[in-house]
Amino acid sequence: MTQQNKVRIIEVVKPNPRWKYEYKEESEKVLSIMGDEIVEIHHIGSTSISGIYAKPIIDILIGVKNISEVDKYDKEMVNIGYTPKGEYGIKGRRFYLKGEIKRTHHIHIFEIDSPHIKRHLNFRDYMNTHPKDAKRYEDLKKDLASEFRYDNEAYCDGKDDFIKEIDKKAEEWDKEIQN
User: Fold this and answer.
1) Which of 9, 109, 132, 150 suits 159 as a labelling partner, its CA being 20 to 30 A distant?
2) Within 10 Å of residue 52's Cβ, how many Cβ atoms?
3) Using a CB cutoff of 8 Å and minimum separation of 24, what contacts does 71-76 make?
4) What is the rounded CA–CA span in Å between residue 16 and residue 169?
5) Rounded-to-10 torsion of CA 83, 88, 93, 94
6) What is the pLDDT of residues 87-100, one digit of tens each?
7) Residue 19: strand, helix, or coil
8) Residues 55-73 pLDDT 10s
């Protein structure tokens, strides 16, 4: 194996209609493991935003009754290819990833009353109804993937300000449509 095969490459690819099916297939697997605990399950992240280039990683957001119960499913999640990462930098979350070098899925689990759930859903829904901002996000991701092809941390840091800007817009937008 060459050194390049051991390094995760940041790739942003054209939209793929398979992403929604991959989400559905994977969410059904997780539902079969954690079904009693799951209250809601959603496709989030760039692959859930219609028509934009994205890293081909399916992000799944799960709301559960009790976050402290989730860890008991770690062994079963490992059996279907996931690596449990615990909170992984966000208090009150459980994070699982599938594939170290060739990443295919991320699972973000929060207790049902977590504000992180609403934030992620607002971001997705806002982007799907605001194509100009979605296009700006796509362009940013392409530029960052080109500049930081082998540095996921720098790639993510480069998106941070934009994501915070959209989170604010999405929160305001959600308040407007709720009224």
Assistant:
1) 109
2) 22
3) 73/33, 73/34, 73/37, 76/33
4) 27
5) 10
6) 999 999 999 999 98
7) helix
8) 999 999 999 999 999 999 9
